[in-house]
Amino acid sequence: MEVRKKRMVVVGVGSIGLRHLRLLAERDDICVEICESNASAVAHTLDQLGQFPVHSSFEQMIGTSPDMVLIATPPELHYQQTVDALECGAHVLCEKPMTATLEEAIGINQLKLKESQILSYGFSFHFHPGLVKTKELIDSGRLGEIQYAYFHIGTYDTMMNSKSKYQCETEGALLMDYVHQPDLLYWILGINPVGLYAAGSAGGRREFKSSPNSITFTMDYQNDLISTIHLDYLQSPDHYYFEFIGDQGWIFYDLMSNTLQLGDTGSKSVDTKKIQVVRDDIYREEHQRFLDAVEGKGRPESTPSEAVNSMMVAKAAHKSWKSKQRILMTDILP
Q1: Do residue 143 and residue 67 come from a single domain?
Q2: All residues at 6 or more sequence positions from 261 whose CB lies less than 8 Å from its CB, including other chains
Q3: Concatenated DSSP letters for 190-259?
Q4: Is 185 among the domain residues?
Q5: How far apart are CA 320 and CA 312, in angstroms?
Q6: Residue 279 CB: number of other CB atoms within 10 A?
Q7: Could you give the number of structural domains in the chain?
């Protein structure tokens, strides 16, 4: 007797949805479908990737009781689509950010899922070989006690490649586009900040601008750790890097060249290593982790209780930027 393949519906076929769809279509263990209301986007997708079952309405799609739903729509749709998909019994993999607001994210986190139901979030950098290696080195104690962490993201190309240019109209879009960075700090270090101070600017002589167009925020913790995240829609070509500094060593990683430098305080040596990164493989691993969790073969990679941490940091950074005050994380909870 032939076993029925599980149905997985990709909701939204913008750039990230298209990538998910293309890679999921490689698999022979699931049936992949599309949910997209924009007819031209559907036509473009089918022309590029071939034929798939198509749902033009989210409500109609939910009525067919899919096994799994991958949500790749704009953030303002994430909350209701996640709730509706869960209520119909589907397992859900939702792209970051969780939702458009912290209040909605907390609401998602408080939902009671059905038995064995999976809800996970698309923080794909957890599967990036360079970040996996960084986490392994820190967990091994090679750097000693971490004293400082820094993430730098400069990307005018994000604005140029945005189809809707929603960043030009949405205050704080920069923080929502790059919730990856506070998520990675929590994922790697396993600790949340106590307080945060942010400064930002809407300036710069660029055709497309957001508010803020550049923001830097520093976070303090219960221990001696300090971390800083810088984000901007200014730099072109893009410039991505991060560093972790401990009392026994340090790591500097350039995400553009995928080069890792490991410094050792005792020997004063610096080892440099090129990390092989295939972007599609990052998403393939993300899909496999989700499907394994659905089959009961492991936990989901990014649960709601873990993903909500990045939303809290984004909300605190926005509030600090507006008020020009240090914000306690306990003060941003509704």
Answers
A1: no
A2: 251, 252, 253, 270, 271, 272
A3: ----SEEEEEEE---S-SS--SSSEEEEEEE-SSS-EEEEEEES--SS-EEEEEEEESSEEEEEETTTTE
A4: yes
A5: 12
A6: 10
A7: 2
Domain final residue pick, 99, 125, 151: 125
Question: Is residue 18 located within the same domain as residue 67?
Answer: yes
Residue 334 has pLDDT above 80, yes or no: no
Contact criterion met (CB below 8 Å) for 13 and 52: no
Lookup: tokens for 329: 């994380």
- 193 preceded by cis ω (within 30°)? no
Stretch 268-287: mean pLDDT: 98
Whether 140 and 255 share a structural domain:
yes
- Whether residues 153 and 212 share a domain: the answer is yes
Interstrand relation of 30-35 and 6-11 (parallel, antiparallel or unpaired): parallel
Q: What is the rounded distance in angstroms from the CA atom of residue 148 to the CA atom of residue 171?
A: 29
If one counts every other C-beta atom within 10 angstroms of the C-beta of residue 225, the result is: 18
Dist. CA 117–CA 92, nearest whole Å: 8
- CATH number of the domain enclosing 248: 3.30.360.10
pLDDT for 89 equals 96
Residue 1 — pLDDT band, cuts 50, 70, 90?
Answer: low
Report how far apart, in Å, the C-alpha atoms of 250 and of each of 149, 187, 191, 241, 265 are: 10, 18, 19, 14, 8
Residues forming a β-bridge with 95? 122
Q: What's the domain range around 23?
A: 6-125
**Model confidence pTM above 0.70:** yes
Kindly state whether residues 66 and 141 are assigned to the same domain: no
In this structure, what CATH number is given to the domain that contains residue 44?
A: 3.40.50.720
- Among residues 179, 161, 178, 167, the alpha carbon closest in space to that of 236 is found at 161
Cα separation, 151 vs 230, whole angstroms: 6
Question: Which neighbouring-strand residues pair with 216?
Answer: 199, 230
Answer whether residue 297 is part of any domain: no
What's the chain's length in residues? 334
Burial code (b: 16+ CB inside 10 Å, e: under 16) for 71-92 equals: bbbebebbbebbebbbeeebbb
